[in-house]
Design a protein that fits this description.
Chain lengths: ~190, ~200
């Protein structure tokens, strides 16, 4: 009798676990998804800021932006995930991260990604890689390594670079550290144009 | 009695020796058994031995169960009853056939429907997000998009300044100026520059 109860419990647990884990597994198998952990970008540093918006939260966000920000909704509704990690660097670690950016770009190119922008200037690196399927861009990976900060961004989903560019220029965003949001660490700074 | 049993009376009588001794066989079977015992020494001995055991058992004195054993049995029964009453619902009955099989089928069916609904992309289970969570996510999403844009713009500016200007635009302008100077028309060169 006890065995039957255990079997039933195990079946239910497996079922619930399978349904809950499906969405996450599915995202990680998406061609535009980049697993930060496998890139070796974290090294010994803890990220100063982490953003991980996906799944139901992203859809809820797109829905809530419908009325007052239709442009943002238009972008968000086609995305599956927005992930960012930033690291505070010093003179010792900055060089390592510049090499990391180069290695990551090569790693991604070996997996069908295309580096569309690669810029270097006085110890700074910027790379933008895209993953395409047919004519559609399904993944965007951006690396920016400066003297004092490195940022890695992965956007998964159906991406229109023009739309993101226009939205980015139009956004009037307060720095994250000005928000009273204690749940996560804030980045050291948010640049503004 | 079947024909097979008639042909194999020794095994049949061996199985029914108790019924024979207790007088439980019907008259026909009794007659057959008696005829067989008259001719089969082995079966006759077996019946005689069984009869002796039966009569010996009947003459044994009746032994009373010791009080200690009786008390122990009653105590065990009481404890078992108490455990059952403390468990409340008898879960065991739920899983005794034939109830547990339909219940199991029901649970699995509901689970499969839920799984198909999720895989079909109809709707995920939406966790409860607070307005604060949404506000934070909105700021983070915008911040990420702007970060992407900044990197693109910076890289684009660098490309323009370091690649296009020195290697394309300025050489073209210089070439036009040189050509215009050759033709003695600096005004044309200025116009070309302005248009460029």
């Amino acid at each position: 009798m006890k065995g039957r109860i255990i079997i039933l419990g195990a079946m239910l647990a497996l079922l619930l676990g399978a349904t809950a884990g499906w969405a996450q597994d599915n995202l990680e198998k998406h061609p535009g998804y980049v697993d930060f952990k496998t890139l070796g970008i974290s090294r010994d540093l803890e990220p100063t800021a982490e953003v991980n918006i996906k799944g139901s939260l992203l859809r809820l966000l797109a829905g809530s932006a419908a009325e007052d920000d239709p442009q943002l909704k238009s972008v968000l509704k086609r995305l599956l995930a927005i992930r960012v990690e930033t690291y505070e660097l010093d003179s010792l670690t900055a060089g390592g991260y510049q090499k990391t950016a180069e290695n990551v770009a090569k790693y991604l190119e070996g997996r069908g990604w295309e580096t569309i922008v690669s810029a270097r200037e006085r110890g700074e690196r910027a790379k933008i890689c895209i993953k395409t399927e047919g004519d559609a861009i399904v993944g965007l990976f951006v690396m920016s390594v400066e003297r004092d900060e490195a940022a890695f961004v992965n956007i998964v989903g159906n991406i229109d670079p023009d739309e993101i560019g226009k939205l980015g220029r139009d956004l009037d965003i307060s720095p994250l550290d000005s928000m009273d949001l204690p749940a996560k660490k804030s980045p050291k700074k948010t640049k503004s144009h | 009695m079947t024909q097979l049993e008639r042909d194999n009376l020794c095994p049949w009588l061996n199985e029914n020796v108790e019924r024979f001794l207790d007088g439980e066989l019907n008259p026909s079977e009794t007659s057959i058994a008696e005829e067989h015992l008259a001719t089969c020494t082995l079966c006759a001995q077996q019946v005689e031995f069984a009869g002796q055991i039966s009569s010996t058992l009947r003459t044994l004195p009746i032994v009373d169960c010791p009080d200690s054993v009786t008390e122990a049995v009653y105590e065990k029964v009481a404890v078992s009853a108490l455990k059952r009453s403390m468990q409340g619902f008898d879960w065991g009955r739920l899983f005794t056939p034939p109830v547990w099989r339909p219940a199991l089928i029901g649970v699995v069916s509901v689970g499969l429907v839920a799984l198909i609904a999720v895989i079909g992309g109809r709707r995920d289970v939406v966790p409860a997000y607070t307005a604060r969570d949404l506000a934070r996510a909105r700021v983070e999403a915008k911040w990420a998009l702007r970060l992407v844009n900044q990197v693109g713009e910076r890289a684009g500016a660098q490309m323009r300044n370091e690649l296009l200007n020195p290697r394309v635009i300025r050489p073209v302008i210089r070439a036009v100026e040189t050509e215009a100077a050759k033709r003695g028309s600096k005004r044309d060169a200025q116009e070309v520059r302005n248009e460029g």
